[in-house]
Design a protein that fits this description.
Multidrug-efflux Transporter Regulator, Chain: A, Domain 2, mainly alpha, two-stranded antiparallel ribbon
Length: 108
């Protein structure tokens, strides 16, 4: 079950000022669910995104490069998720389909 936390908890966990989190939200780098005027509900995916943003900041990725880096990472994560689904689908496919795909793999 996913745990929802507030901006105060996120700031304490990552030793961040609320202003930093609010800037990330304003720049659309982080998309938590709004709870009120200045508060948000951070679900598991949002918490992971904060960890990623902190790590990228520690690696000194600048504000101008951050949107490009985030876009590329998002594309990579999407591709991994799609490949995982494809792998699951192929695992349950009929044997002739799996055999045909296996044969085609060696032809390329």
């Amino acid at each position: 079950m996913s745990q929802i936390v507030t901006i105060e908890i996120i700031c304490r966990r990552h030793q961040l000022e609320q202003q930093v989190i609010q800037q990330w939200i304003a720049r659309d780098w982080l998309r938590p669910d709004p709870l009120g005027e200045d508060d948000y509900a951070f679900q598991d995916i949002d918490q992971a995104r904060v960890s990623l943003l902190v790590e990228l900041r520690d690696l000194e990725i600048g504000d101008s490069a951050m949107p490009v880096v985030l876009s590329l990472l998002d594309q990579l994560y999407d591709a991994r998720r799609l490949l995982g689904r494809l792998r699951e689908t192929l695992a349950t496919a009929p044997a002739p389909v799996r055999e045909m795909l296996g044969a085609n793999r060696h032809e390329g």
